[in-house]
Amino acid sequence: MDSRDEKQILKDLIRRYQAVEAIENDIFKAYEILRSCFEQGGKLLIAGNGGSCADSEHIVGELMKGFVKKRPVSPEYAKRLEAADPELGPKLAACLQGGLPAIALTGHPALTTAFSNDVDGSMGYAQQVCVYGKEGDVFLGITTSGNSENILYAAAAARASGLKIIGLTGRDGGKLKRMSDVSVVVPEQETYKIQELHLPVYHALCLMLEEHFYEV
């Protein structure tokens, strides 16, 4: 896709949420990091706490299936599905959708509670980054303050593992800002107001990625 299409999505975001105009360049840089990751076959790891935990899961939901486009599987893959199982394959081919690989580190309670009980709960996300993360992947840390300890541990593990780091924060960006390759710091101070701007920002990122990777 022409990058003008993705930039138009960003312009539309700013039209609806004028407060984010000041961070337009950072949002686009975050998009470029994610685009490059997926183009090279990498994946996105996401983590946050509380409302940011829910945002992590939300982002995965928009990336791993159709967001505003249907994203049908390729004709070649559809044929392979039908060859794999003549009975089940046609329905799979009709229903499955293209996706961009993303994992919310927030959704593994057996692992995280075991690590918390046996080792250190503040490093549960870092443990997952250590195991899942490969060079070329991206870690997205969501924290309104930029100072959540478990997110900082995960970011440090991401750096050691060769991942790019995107911070999605508020206030002054906190410690995560200096640890990130790009830090998207929405211009608000109160937690709920920061979270209110996080959602349209990551929706725009998901739309831009879908526009780039999928025709329909």
TrEMBL record:
Residues 34-215 form the SIS domain. Pfam families: SIS_2. PANTHER family: SEDOHEPTULOSE 7-PHOSPHATE ISOMERASE / DNAA INITIATOR-ASSOCIATING FACTOR FOR REPLICATION INITIATION. This is SIS domain-containing protein.
